[in-house]
Design a protein that fits this description.
There is one protein chain. This protein is α/β, with parallel strands linked by helices and 337 residues long. The chain has 2 domains: 186 residues, D-Maltodextrin-Binding Protein, domain 2 (3-Layer(aba) Sandwich); 130 residues, D-Maltodextrin-Binding Protein, domain 2 (3-Layer(aba) Sandwich). 36% of the residues lie in helices and 17% in strands. Helix 1 crosses helix 9.
């Protein structure tokens, strides 16, 4: 991108998780952002980040939950627009934990059960509910949902608790993991293994014990690597500086490429993983030539359309949103160079 020497550099703060292989170069200042003085603020607690973005619009640019963004926009909160940069993507089949004494032999057995989730609107749960519905016929409305804290009692929710048409109970006096261990819940969906999974393996297990094979099959069938988070910009900033969204998208793409080269430098292993070379090579067996972390609307349109469909089907938005509803006008046709 050509730098406009007549334009004063815009001071911008970005808040997000420091994923070293994707945004590390940006955080370290190894990637220049033309016409922008970018300050990066690293968060460890992504739930705290999302609450602060959703409640206070605290940061001009931030990593944000895809589902929470859609819920906000779909219900008339227009403070943010999004950029199709996706720092967090993940398969989530591994994150459904069940009581082994409740007769849950397959996903269909979850219908009518009591399931805990930290936030109903969290994007990981959105994708799990969508997968259960599309692949196994278990709709969100057929489950009794309980929201609350994972290992500790709940903090305040991001946007609001009630979701029309969804059986939803907020738990504030205990944790979801304690309820699972005590038998008050039949299953939980969460970002990490509950302590009861390690402490009581005779009682708590995974719905999909061989989850990697299940997730690889899911991708081969659907061609979807679920998107969790994207980047948002406060709308008034995007309207005042319409060039900023594409400038940031370019910078995030360059940072990802720097991280990829670092990851593939096998003389200096970037992660503590003895078989990282083999695992990276195995990615090609599943994804082919496709970049699993591709940015841009078009390479991800089917994934984004599915997520927005799930938001509507699961009661988070009154209608299915379009790309134009969610993403800044200037980046709808943007693509990585």
């Amino acid at each position: 991108m050509t730098v406009d020497a007549t334009r004063p550099r815009l001071k911008v703060a970005y808040a997000g998780v420091l994923y070293d292989d994707r945004v590390g170069a940006l955080f370290r200042g190894d990637v220049d952002v033309p016409d922008v003085d970018l300050t990066c603020i690293a968060f460890r607690d992504v739930a705290d980040l999302f609450r602060r973005v959703a409640t206070f619009a605290e940061f001009p640019v931030a990593e944000m939950s895809l589902a929470t963004t859609a819920r906000m926009i779909g219900n008339g909160d227009s403070r943010f627009t999004a950029v199709p940069v996706f720092p967090s993507r993940a398969f989530r089949h591994s994150q459904i934990y069940i009581r082994l004494d409740r007769g849950i032999e397959n996903p269909q057995d979850l219908a009518g059960k009591r399931i805990g989730v930290i936030e109903y609107e969290m994007t990981a749960a959105l994708w799990i509910r969508g997968m259960l519905s599309d692949d196994f016929g278990v709709d969100a409305q057929s489950i009794d949902w309980y929201t609350g804290g994972w290992e500790q009692p709940a903090k305040k929710s991001r946007v609001g608790h009630d979701v029309e048409g969804i059986p939803l109970t907020r738990i504030t006096d205990t944790s979801l993991v304690a309820m699972l261990a005590d038998g008050a819940l039949d299953a939980v969906i969460g970002p990490k293994a509950p302590s009861a999974f390690h402490e009581r393996p005779d009682v708590v297990g995974r719905l999909f014990p061989g989850y990697r094979a299940v997730e690889e099959d899911y991708y081969r069938r659907t061609r979807m690597f679920p998107i969790m988070h994207h980047i948002v910009i406060r709308r008034e900033i995007d309207e005042e500086h319409p060039w900023l969204a594409t400038t940031l998208a370019d910078a995030f793409a360059r940072s990802k490429e720097v991280g990829r080269r670092f990851l593939l430098d096998f003389d200096k292993p970037a992660v503590m993983h003895p078989w990282i070379v083999d695992d990276i090579e195995r990615l090609g067996e599943v994804f082919g030539e496709q970049d699993p972390f591709a940015y841009g609307v078009e390479p991800n349109r089917h994934v984004l359309d599915t997520a927005l469909r799930y938001c509507h089907e699961q009661g988070l938005t009154p209608k299915q949103l379009s790309m134009e509803d969610v993403y800044a006008r200037t980046v709808l046709d943007w693509h990585e160079s």
